Amino acid sequence: MPRLGAALLLCLLVLSLPEPPAAESPLQLPAPQNVTIYSYNYQNLLRWAPVKVDNGSVLYTVQYSTIAYDWEEINCTNITKTECNFTHPEIKSFWTITLRVRAELGQVKSDWVETNKFFADQNTTIGPPVIVNVDSTPDSLFLNFSPNVKEDNLQYLVRYWEKSTNERHETEWTKNTRIGLLNLKQLTVYCFQIRAKLRLLNDNIGPFSKTDCHKTATSDATRAGFVAIIFVGATVTVVILAIVCFLFIQKFHQVIKYWFQPPFQIPLHIEEYLKDPEMPVLEELQNNCAEEDPWDSLSVVSNAEGSQALLNTNVQSDSRSIESEKT
Ligand SMILES: *[C@@H]1O[C@H](CO)[C@@H](O)[C@H](O)[C@H]1NC(C)=O
Ligand SMILES: *[C@@H]1O[C@H](CO)[C@@H](O)[C@H](O)[C@H]1NC(C)=O
Ligand SMILES: *[C@@H]1O[C@H](CO)[C@@H](O)[C@H](O)[C@H]1NC(C)=O
Ligand SMILES: *[C@@H]1O[C@H](CO)[C@@H](O)[C@H](O)[C@H]1NC(C)=O
Ligand SMILES: *[C@@H]1O[C@H](CO)[C@@H](O)[C@H](O)[C@H]1NC(C)=O
Ligand SMILES: *[C@@H]1O[C@H](CO)[C@@H](O)[C@H](O)[C@H]1NC(C)=O
């Protein structure tokens, strides 16, 4: 029993002892994880997960090597960001490079982490070209686009389909930056996607662009047809209207006559005359006629006579004709 007691006491003693102090500065820093190269149209970025430490800010250093050279620095030394932009015009064609990254905290350094071999032509993602404009004709769409990579060996392909169906068609690969989608239906919406590839031993084929849709134009024949239909329609309408008017006039002849020509009203003086035949209405009428005699205009003609010869002859002939009318 006392032995057991002693053991228990020892146990308690051990438990109550202060824990051994944690290492002030670890001899080894964990290496960066998930070291990945992202490359799009030869824009190259190396990224990694940050190395977490309780105290202090970790710095990173990236180096590269080609087959021919030793490890070298690339402006990503003692950086705090967890990415390194290693875009460089020389890191292209025929270059195979390897990158490596390590973390540093004061004097403590992590192990290097190496990437896979990076062969830009093969490993970069060739982005789809940008559609500049689309020319539409009744039976085709012509896509004009511009590449966003400077490369001689690019080729393009378009996948297209009638929007209302899902039957996909693909053009041939071509170097042209204008592709025609032919034998389409007029006035129909077509959708398309475009992709580029880099011609190599193993082609580097880029992803398709976002879907874009366009409508084909109307054909001249159809337009002429529309015009003809509109013309015929207008003509028929006019004819029908004319017939309806005619029938209407026939049927409501009397009414219409009444509207346009109110019943004839005998002038007051004639009416009076009819009532009282002795009133000198006839004379009055004759006098009125005399007053309205067109001789007035003749006097104007004689005034003009003196001034303009050319006018004279005209006016004279006028006056003659007036005279002849008068006789
Ligand atoms: C590394 O990537 C994997 C998968 O994407 C993820 O589960 C993991 O958390 C990442 N590691 C770090 C340290 O971020
Ligand atoms: C790290 O911790 C020490 C003491 O534990 C402190 O003196 C120092 O300021 C800390 N450094 C940072 C960068 O926080
Ligand atoms: C590093 O950066 C300096 C200045 O920002 C620049 O002149 C130099 O060309 C760069 N070196 C590399 C290898 O990118
Ligand atoms: C990076 O940091 C180390 C020590 O932390 C230093 O010796 C070295 O000169 C630094 N390099 C640059 C390019 O700042
Ligand atoms: C990387 O650098 C290139 C050339 O210096 C620049 O054009 C590009 O915008 C940079 N990319 C990022 C993500 O910073
Ligand atoms: C580049 O592509 C090759 C072949 O597809 C592949 O084996 C390699 O891992 C890629 N490199 C990188 C850094 O992803």
Automatic annotation (TrEMBL):
CDD domains noted in UniProt: FN3
Pfam families: Interfer-bind, Tissue_fac
GO cellular component: plasma membrane
Stretch forming the signal peptide: 1-23
InterPro entries: FN3_dom (IPR003961), FN3_sf (IPR036116), Ig-like_fold (IPR013783), Interferon/interleukin_rcp_dom (IPR015373), Type-II_Cytokine-TF_Rcpt (IPR050650)
Positions of the Fibronectin type-III domain: 31-123, 125-219
Keywords, comma-separated and alphabetical: Membrane, Signal, Transmembrane, Transmembrane helix
Transmembrane segments: 224-249
GO molecular function: cytokine receptor activity
Protein name: Interferon gamma receptor 2
Organism: Terrapene triunguis (Three-toed box turtle)
